[in-house]
Amino acid sequence: MDETVVAVLHNWAVSQSPLAGIVEPVAEYGIFVLPVTLLVVWVRADGFSEPRSGVLAACMAALIAFGMGLVLEHPRRPRPFVELGFTPLIAHLADSSFPSDHTLTGVALIGPLLWTLPRVAWSLVSWVLIVGAARVAAGLHHPSDILGSAVLARALDAIVWFACCRAPWLFGNGKEMLPT
User: Fold this and answer.
1) Closest-CA residue to 38 (of 128, 109, 125)
2) 113-156 pLDDT, tens per residue?
3) Buried b (16+ CB within 10 A) or exposed e, 115-152
4) Which residues contact 117 (CB under 8 A, 6 or more apart)?
5) 3-state class of 116 per DSSP?
């Protein structure tokens, strides 16, 4: 099923030149919307508030997710463009397809905001999934790489958020940070 979805999305993107012109930058650079949004949240928040606590937890989760991605790429899962024998829309190394670093780090980066700024966070979750779909269409990932990375990141977010709620010396008194 993974290969079919990749082939359909990739062929669709390649056959529609305007679509390829959208897929390429979204797949490669779309992830940068997330740290910019976190910076805006940080600047607009007052003092040491719940949104700022969410941003700090998000940064911690993203750093852990990045390291986790480096560990999890062994054993290697071939990228779709290698497995299916086509040229990806974006030049990329033929390294491991799983996990999707963009999705793993992206969801980890915005996950804690689901507890502090849910409206903003759900918009960003949607954006990360769009970036993931663009990376599938570009031939860089299987759909299961995107979904598996998102689930893994959410689990990591929960662990980091729970740890942050238990570290009042680092993140305020902790009580107001517990998810409701």
Assistant:
1) 109
2) 988 889 989 999 999 999 999 999 999 999 999 999 999 999 99
3) bbbeebbeebbebbbebbbbbbbbbbbbbbbbebbbeb
4) 41, 51, 54
5) helix
- Residue spans per domain, the chain: 2-177
Q: Report d(CA 76, CA 99) in Å as an integer.
A: 10
- pTM for the whole structure: 0.84
| Domain 2-177 -> CATH class | mainly alpha
Residue 139 in tokens: 């031939």
> Residues 31-88: pLDDT tens digits?
999 999 999 999 998 876 788 888 888 999 999 999 998 888 877 889 999 988 998 9
Nearest CA-CA partner of 142 in 11, 2, 21: 2
Q: DSSP assignment, residue 97?
A: -
Task: Find out whether the peptide bond into 75 is cis, omega within 30 degrees of 0.
Answer: yes
